[in-house]
Amino acid sequence: MLATGLVVVLVSWSVGAFGPLIGGALAGLPMVLGPGFYFLAQQFPADYVQQAATYAVYSLSATQLFLLLIILCAPTLSPWRTLLCAVAGWAIAAFILSFMPIQPWLGLGLFIVVTAFSLRVSRRLAGMKGTSKAKAGWGLLVFRGTLAGLLVAVVTTGSSLLGPSLSGLIMAFPIGYTVVAVTIHQTLGAASLVATLRSALWGTGSLAGFCTTLALIFTQFHWLTALLLAAAVSIAITLLLVFRPWARRA
Fold first, then answer.
1. Which end of the chain is more exposed for a tag (fewer CB within 10 A), N or C?
2. For the chain, what percentages of helix, strand and coil (3-state, to nearest 5) are there?
3. What does pTM read for this prediction?
4. pLDDT digits over 132-157, tens only?
C-alpha cells in the first residue's frame, strides 16, 4: 500500500520537476508488483507464483493498450471519461489474455509487439502542445497516493483467492498508472499527460523485465533471491531509460 502511494507521489512530482520523460520512466518501477509478489511468495508454492508472474507479463500487454487509450482520449475527453475508456479496454484485453498458455517468452514477445504498435499509433501526438495547469500540492499528491495504496491492498488480498492466472492478471492491473494519469491530467493538462504516458510505454518495459525474470527463475532459486534478481533487472531497465536522453546528447 505504502509503495503504491510513493510511486504516485514520486511520478507526479518528477513530471513537474524533471519533465515527462523521466516521470514516465520512473512510473515503470515495480513498487506495486514487487510487494504483491512478495506476499504471494509467502502464501503459495513456487509453481503458483511462477504461473502468476507469467500472466502478469500477459497483463502488461493490456496495460500498454490502457496507456494508449488514455493517450488517444485525453486531448478530447475529461480525465474520468478518459479513464473509463482505458479501464474498459484493459478489461477486455485482460479477459482475452486469460486464455493464453503459460509461456513467459510468448508473453514477452506479445508485450514487445503491443508496445511497438502503441508507440507507432501514438506518435502523432508526441509533440502535442497545451496550456500547463497549476501543479498539485503535496497534500493532494499524498492523498491520492494513499488512495492508490488502499486500492492495491484490496486487489492483492482478493487476487489470492482467484488462482494463479487471474492473480497475475489482476496483480498487474495498472492501479499506479490510473491515479498518476488522473492526477497529471487534472493538474498539468493533457499535453503533459500524453508526453508522460508515451514515456511510460517505454517505462513499462521495466515491469515486463521484472515479471519475465520472475516467471523464468522463480522455481529455480530461493524466492527472495528470485525477487531480488527480478528487481535488479527492472531497476537496470529503468536506469537505462532515465539516462537515455543524456546518452543521446553526448
1. C
2. 80, 0, 20
3. 0.83
4. 444 555 565 666 566 666 666 766 67
